[in-house]
Every structure is written in structure tokens, then in C-alpha cells.
Amino acid sequence: MVRRPLQHALDEIRFGPTRTLNLRASLPSAADAVKRTESWLRTKQVEGAREVLVITGRGNQSHAGVPVVREAVRRLLHLLSTRGVVLDHGEHSPGSFAVRLAPVTGARTSRTPGGDRSEPLPPIGPPTLDGLSETTRQQLRKLAATALDALGVRDPSPSFVHDEMVRQCAELASAIPPGTSAAEREERLADAIRRALRFFQDDIR
Fold it and tell me: Is the pLDDT of residue 111 over 90?
């Protein structure tokens, strides 16, 4: 029987098979890797896992030796860190990432001046896409396409782009204070979209 390397044995003790996603074993495309990884991480977050391992491989068999899957997953982890899924992550090995998941937070609650908790605050719903101006919708569509491209998703379907638009809209709108008028909410959302686009453009350079 061939003895497994010490690092593999230590990983099995630290993470175990239920907290390890081995993408390398199935050799997925970058787009498939992103979809599988996000779905798996969100599931593990709901299950209460604190730390997980995502194995991407080094990309030695990729075209021109470019680690496409590894880079797509790395970008996804950065993105999910802004969405309350990933707390932090780091390179565990040249072909894997150790990921700490953010806890699933309960409903936000308000506090009285004395510090006592009162009734939970109602969730703040993002503006619906139907209520946005055509200009804002176009910018949001551009942001969604840019984000998917950065994750390695090529030629996404219209429904996939729409889902990403909804996710981006919900994420950006969550930072808008409650009580803001509809017109000001859209203005702030449009400004957040512009800043997000600049972020991706600066990241590409």
C-alpha cells in the first residue's frame, strides 16, 4: 500500500472529506468550477462549517500552463468575501485554498438607547430591476457581464446574466440606508455600480 504524503494526511485530519471540495478530480471548466464552488460554499455555510478546503490543482495541464480554474476560483472567493459568504481565505498549497466561512447571521435587531434589543428590523429589499431606469439597467447588465467574465464564465446565457444582475443589485443596494427615497436609492445604486465597474477595470490593468 502506497503511503500518502504527510500533507494529505494532515489535510484529512484538519478538514475531512465532508469539508473538502476536490475540483481537480473532475477537471471542470472554469465556468463549471465557479458554479460548483459557489453552490458548495453556500451549502457549507448554511451547515455551519467554519473552515473548508477547495482543491483546484496547479493548472499544470491547462493550456499554456495557465491555471484557469485556480484563478477563477480565486476571483470567486474575493467576490464572495463581499457577499457575506467567505470570511477570509488563503493559499493552503499551490493547488488549493483554505477558506473560512462567515457565520450565517440572524435577523438584524434594533437597540433602544439603553442597549436592550427590541423587535427585529424588517429586511431592506433591493430595488427591483423592473423599477430601474433603462440607463441603470444597462450599467447593471454591464457590471454583471464584467463580473462573470472575471470569474471565467464565457458566453453566459441571458438568464444567467439576469441572475447575476439581481445578485449585484441586491448586494449594492444593501449598503443604502433605510428610509432613502426611491429616486435617491437609484442614484446611489447607479453610483455604486460605477464604482464597482471601476474596481473591475483597475483589477484587470
Answer: no
Please provide the DSSP assignment of 64-85 as one string.
Answer: GG--HHHHHHHHHHHHHHTTTS
Q: How far apart (Å, rounded) are the C-alpha atoms in residues 99 and 78?
A: 11
Q: What angle do CA 79, 130, 108 make, to 5 degrees?
A: 50
Residue pLDDT, tens place only, 73-85? 999 999 898 888 9
Q: Say yes or no to pLDDT of 98 above 60.
A: yes
Number of residues in the chain: 205
Residue 27 or 66, more confident:
27
Gap between the Cα atoms of 22 and 14, Å rounded: 15
CATH number at residue 34: 3.30.1370.110
Query: Quick check: 86 and 101 in contact, CB under 8 A?
Result: yes
94 in the same domain as 16 = yes
Question: How many CA atoms, within 13 angstroms, populate the side-chain half-sphere of residue 51?
Answer: 11
